[in-house]
Amino acid sequence: GKSGYDHYMLKEIHEQPTALRQGLSGRLDELSGRVTVEELDDVGTPETVHFVACGTSYHAALYGVELFREAGIPAQAFIASEYATGPAPVPENGLVIGVTQSGETADTLAALREAAGRGAETLALTNVVGSTVARECDHVMYIRSGPEIGVAASKTFSSQLTSLNLLVESLAGGATGDSRELVSALRDLPGDIQQVLDETTAEAVVDEYLGDDAFFFIGRGQNFPVALEGALKFKEITYEHAEGFAAGELKHGPLALVTARTPVFAVVTGNDERARKTIGNVKEVEARDAPVVAVTDGQSDVERYADHVLSIPETHPRTAPMLANVQLQLVSYHMADRLGRSIDKPRNLAKSVTVE
Ligand code: M6R
């Protein structure tokens, strides 16, 4: 059942600390800073990686791309339905990774079959033991999120991002100082998410923007997939118009849509060059009178330009996007709830899409 929550989605949002502990269990060694994923013991370091996925899982794949690139391995993410009809050639020793919570998404299965047919090695990152993807791929890693009932993916996205860190460390990482920091950030992640859940002000923030025209989400780097995911979740369960943009793309067109009735959710974590540039983009929307909600760890001065702040604890650059995502999940949930939407079963959608 829903264990006292009004919706499965809210229950699953609150299950994230537990889901992530399950996913991390036995896979982190804090002393050495090493990650071990038993299922991946027989997978070598790939020379290049293609991800194929749909929807939320595609956003997870975009996050995975950057992890591989940081590890020195060229990687690309493809929308599975596009890859299935004209896959990019996979070079020798290339690995094609299908990211799919259900393991049954027809588009993703078709892309993987196409890749396998061309001789690529395939790996499934999935939640469902014994699913079609798990049976068909050469290798499988489980995200161990536990069953997800809500049509809108919530905890499984967090589990995918966490698992991608483990996957990349295990295939391409080393026991360096950097790895140790990541391992300790991953260990702290369930507690950090709990803190976001306990202290969020998302419900009060959405009340300010009921009835507005459209909702935009912006981010840069690892916060770009989070912006895309924030917008997908928002449109899926609120039925309101929402779009996610790379923060730097706004001025190349979308800025024309920005008014005093289009709140912009800006994900800004850390205080590096990327954060500073995104703050520049925040100033651009502010100058067009758009309300700004900053989702931030407080390291930069983005709060100065924001009407509201959704705070997350300070953490590692790889885990910060996951904490920001939890705030955006709550934004979508509370807006949908205020609008009386069918949150667990949005119109026109199914939990797993088994047609191409
Ligand atoms: O089961 P999969 O991860 O393959 O599903 C892919 C998409 O259909 C799925 O993520 C969809 O976008 C969700 N409903 C988003 O909340």
From TrEMBL:
GO terms for molecular function: carbohydrate derivative binding; glutamine-fructose-6-phosphate transaminase (isomerizing) activity. The keyword Transferase applies. It is found in: Cytoplasm. The active site is at K351. Keywords: Aminotransferase, Cytoplasm, Glutamine amidotransferase, Repeat, Transferase. Residues 36-177, 205-346 form the SIS domain. Its EC number is 2.6.1.16. This is Glutamine--fructose-6-phosphate aminotransferase [isomerizing]. It comes from Halobaculum gomorrense. The lineage of its organism: Archaea, Methanobacteriati, Methanobacteriota, Stenosarchaea group, Halobacteria. The gene is glmS.
